[in-house]
Amino acid sequence: MDAYEQITRNVSEVVTEDEVRALAESPDGKRAYVGYEPSGVLHIGHMLTATKLMELQDAGMDVTVLLADVHAYLNDKGSFEEIRDTAERMKAQFLAYGLDEEQTEFVLGSEFQFDREYVLDLHALELNTTLSRAERAMAEIKGGDSVKVSQAVYPLMQALDIVYLDVDLAIGGMEQRKVHMLARDVLPAIDEDAPTCMHTPLIADLSSGAGKMSSSTGTTISMEDSTKDIEEKVNAAFCPPTANPDPADDGTERENPVLQIFEYHVFPRFEQVVVERPEKYGGNLTYDDYASLEAELESGELHPMDAKTALASYLDELIAPGREKIRAQK
RNA sequence: CCGCUCUUAGCUCAGCCUGGCAGAGCAGCCGACUGUAGAUCGGCUUGCCCCCCGUUCAAAUCGGGGAGAGCGGACCA
To answer: Where does L-tyrosine bind (predicted)?
Structure first.
């Protein structure tokens, strides 16, 4: 696999391909970043972008993880003290999940976002952005039930972070794409380069296969889940024997979240996946890549229940170190 | 600053006029059927009716005050 393929593996969107190809020419020392609002416990959404960061590290890139305490505050996620408290725990969980400590720099937003120069640049961006544009950019990520002025400032700070953290490649889930597009539009207004971005897919809701897995409603897999929690959640997941389920009765598109998790969480971290299967159903199955697993689920050779059992076991293995960390933190 | 509308189950809302057991759809949960889930069928759960004060035998419902949300207007020397 060449560097470009490795860097863009499993992403939904590359902006722009030419820019990433240029990065892939000499990835060593290039800097990628993701910003996260601190939350007490890593969930599967955090882990998805973290997996991508690990792949970028394997390709030779350095990684900055922004623990976006100021952003979380602006997004109505609680008091500053509470938020900063969780940031440190989050860092430990990322390391436990597998980010390389040598190649990862953790930065707290408040370390540089109050600098005079930063704030002046921020105001310059504000001057170049309409409220409705900022609001649209935030549509997918805002917390709370009404739009605050702080939430209009939020995406502009993300744009500036890319400049101040000296980032070559901005990573985020697909919910971040409008923010990143805003950054590409507005940064040239202060004579900065439009950032190169890649967006990871969003995992569908575990129980319905529709929309995106939400941390607030529905079922989410997080680092504090016990082995039993994971088994129960995965077993309850929507999983027709196909990668392309029929739409729901009301017409909404559905995905197969079990396959998605195999594709985006398990195969990037394991060379080989062994599905343990009772003798009466034919014994164990072994897969070296995601495509062959999907094909056999589709053909009926692999039964969804056996796939689920295997998925729960691999997920548990991925989460176990972080789970230990969380227990130690309490 | 002024005016109008809204606030009831996890969600969308009905009920308010004309006071009398707190409702529906969806979601959720439990079973049946499937070697998973979903679909289907059967059953079940769910409440600070935004808050306070008042009227009344009795208030989600009527009156007063307040809060939050949405919309409009005014001001622009």
So the answer is: 33, 154, 158, 161, 176
